[in-house]
């Protein structure tokens, strides 16, 4: 017999649109049906997939495959946005989609969210290059971020065997062009580090969701992560921060993250090592552990004594 949780229907979402200059951006919102939300979470996607497959994935028989649904059930309003070059947002030829441009897109998205909802500072979660975008956005607009969670993050790139392999293909990643993706590519995300961390039915659903929106992705974040790191200064992130690393993640070098973590100036900070997890945390077998860690951080009481 399925649990009551598994039988819950997907929570209805609502699309929104805004602009960064003349580029149109797609936003997706899910919220509790009644009462004031506990807070507002903004999810930021990575290099190779748009926002909805990453954060609002629906897999039959797998409760809370949608991180957005999970947090709405916990009383939060949730938002995500397709960066320029991804999903339903502007994909005009020549789009760079760099990390810096992603941070600009987040400024535009939060302009819209904060004016529309009058909700105050946001809880922000970013994964992989989305973590870099979220951190860059926080450097620019720290007053808009209540708590920042960085998952599968990379700082200097030291110790990242995924980036080492990616650099070998750097001549193929031309600025303003796109790289093709297919189902085999999506499977490679889960098999490159430690096969077996995700169920095939989840990878299939994830791939179907990604490929329904895109058959190629912009090169900007790949180029940045291969040639321009570090792009984040940890001393300029003043908000409470959580650094999350999957045990088998080939992007996020452990020592590199520890050095980044040391330099975060706010003493309200945490480092979470996530066992049995590689990349794409919400699609792993141990995804409920990820949701628990993130929810605990977002609901942590504020310190009443600082010394």
From TrEMBL:
It comes from the Bacteria. Gene3D superfamilies: alpha/beta hydrolase. Residues 66-282 form the Serine aminopeptidase S33 domain. Pfam families: Hydrolase_4. SUPFAM superfamilies: alpha/beta-Hydrolases. This is Lysophospholipase. It comes from Ancylobacter mangrovi.
